[in-house]
Design brief:
The protein has eleven helices and twelve strands. It folds into two domains: 236 residues, Aldolase class I (TIM Barrel); 64 residues, Type Iii Antifreeze Protein Isoform Hplc 12. By secondary structure, the protein is of the alpha/beta class.
C-alpha cells in the first residue's frame, strides 16, 4: 500500500515569557490564567452626596465589576490650606486654578461614610477596598477588615506608606503612573522588605483624561516578565478600547473610574465611565482574555467542523484497477476526505489498487506501490 511522505507536525508550546504568581482578594484569584479582575473606582464621583455614592456602588455591582474602590484621605492629610505657589494648580488639567486643599476637601470621601459603604458593597456581593494615603487611613481600613489595599500612582514614591500596607499582610496593588523603572523597583523592594507577600502592579498613565497614544500598553508584558507579579491597567482614557487592548496583552486587573451620570459634575466625572460603559468594559475585557487563548498550533474543536471544506485528492474519472493516476483523472477539490493536495505529485504515475469510481476520495490504500 502506498504511504505518503510523513508530514512534519508543528505543535509549539511557547514557554511563558514570565512566571507571574497570583494574588487572592476576597476569595477571587487574580492572575494571568484567570479572567480580568475589574475594579470600579468611585473616587470623587460621589460629589459629596452619600446617596449618590451608594447608587454608584449598586450600578457597579449590577454592571459585573468585581470590586468597588474608594480613596481614603482628608484634605489635611494631603496638603496645606495654602495659596502659595505650588498649592494652586497651574497646569492645564481639569482642575486648573483650584487650590489643592479645596479640591481634596470636595473630593474626599468622609471617613464616617466608610462603614456604611463597605457594608452595602458586601451586601451586594462586590468587594470593597480603598487607596489609603496615610497611616490613619490604613488603620481605618484595617478596622473595616478591608481585604486588600491599593497605592495610588501619586503615592508610589511614599515607601513608608507601602511598607505600612505590606505590614498588614493584605494583598497590595500598586499603580505606577508617573513612575520611572527605578521608582517601581524601589516600591516593589519596599513591599518585599516589609514582609509583603501578594503584590500586583498596574500600568497607568496619570493624565486626566489620558491620551490612548500615551498608554504604552507594551509595558504590560515587560512588567510581568520583570517583576513576576500580576500586572493590570488603571485606565484614565475615554471609552473602553485601551482597557480591552490591555487585557489582550495580558492585563489581569482593570481599574476604571465610574459614575452614575455626567451631571451633577464632579472632579472626576469628565473621564469616568457611565454604567453602560462599565458593563461593556466588563464583558469586552473578559472576551479579550478568552481570545488570548493558548499558544498551540492547529485547529480548535469548533474549527474541526470546517476541515471537510478543505481540498483533498479525488478521482474525477473512473479509474480501472492497475490504471495509472494522471492529472486528468485525479484533482484536488472539495470536500477534504481524501489525501492532502500536496501528495498529488507523489501519486502521479502510480496505479490504482482497485477500480475507483468518479467522486471517490483518493486514500493511501487505493494507491499501489508498483
Amino acid at each position: 500500500m502506498f504511504r505518503p511522505l510523513a508530514a512534519t507536525v508543528h505543535r509549539v508550546e511557547m514557554m511563558p515569557t514570565h512566571s507571574s504568581s497570583t494574588i487572592t482578594i476576597d476569595g477571587r484569584t487574580i492572575g494571568p490564567d484567570h479572567p480580568p479582575y475589574i475594579i470600579a473606582e468611585l473616587s470623587a464621583n460621589h460629589g459629596g452626596d452619600l446617596e449618590r455614592a451608594k447608587r454608584i456602588i449598586r450600578l457597579a455591582a449590577e454592571s459585573g465589576a468585581h470590586a468597588i474602590k474608594f480613596q481614603a484621605y482628608t484634605a489635611d492629610s494631603m496638603t496645606l490650606d495654602c495659596d502659595m505657589p505650588g498649592f494652586v494648580i497651574e497646569s492645564d488639567t481639569l482642575w486648573k486654578g483650584q487650590k489643592l486643599y479645596d479640591l481634596y476637601a470636595k473630593a474626599a470621601t468622609p471617613y464616617d461614610w466608610f462603614p456604611e459603604l463597605f457594608a452595602l458593597a458586601r451586601q451586594l456581593g462586590i468587594t470593597p477596598f480603598a487607596s489609603p494615603f496615610d497611616d490613619e487611613a490604613v488603620e481605618m481600613l484595617e478596622a473595616l477588615q478591608a481585604p486588600a489595599h491599593k497605592i495610588a500612582s501619586f503615592e508610589t514614591i511614599d515607601l513608608a506608606l507601602i511598607e505600612r500596607c505590606a505590614g498588614t499582610g493584605k494583598p497590595l496593588i500598586i499603580s505606577t503612573g508617573l513612575c520611572t523603572r527605578e521608582e517601581i523597583d524601589e516600591a516593589v523592594a519596599a513591599f518585599r522588605s516589609a514582609g509583603g507577600r501578594e503584590l500586583a502592579l498596574l500600568k497607568c498613565n496619570s493624565a486626566y483624561p489620558a491620551d490612548p497614544k500615551e498608554a504604552n500598553l507594551s509595558l504590560i508584558p515587560d512588567m510581568a516578565h520583570r517583576y513576576g507579579v500580576p500586572i493590570g491597567y488603571s485606565d484614565h482614557t475615554l471609552g473602553t478600547v485601551a482597557a480591552v487592548t490591555a487585557c489582550s496583552m495580558g492585563a489581569c486587573i482593570v481599574e476604571k473610574h465610574v459614575i452614575d451620570a455626567r451631571e451633577p459634575a464632579t472632579a472626576d466625572s469628565e473621564f469616568s465611565a457611565l454604567p453602560d460603559d462599565l458593563k461593556a468594559l466588563v464583558e469586552h475585557c473578559r472576551t479579550a482574555f478568552e481570545s488570548r487563548g493558548r499558544t498551540v498550533y492547529g485547529p480548535t474543536e469548533r474549527e474541526r467542523q470546517s476541515l471537510p471544506f478543505r481540498r483533498s485528492l479525488h478521482v474525477v474519472k473512473d479509474v480501472a484497477q492497475g490504471e495509472a493516476f494522471t492529472s486528468e483523472n485525479v484533482r484536488a477539490l472539495r470536500p477534504g476526505h481524501g489525501m492532502k493536495p500536496k501528495h498529488l505529485r507523489e501519486i502521479l504515475g502510480k496505479t490504482a489498487s482497485r477500480a475507483i469510481s468518479v467522486g471517490e476520495p483518493l486514500t493511501p490504500d487505493l494507491v499501489s506501490e508498483s
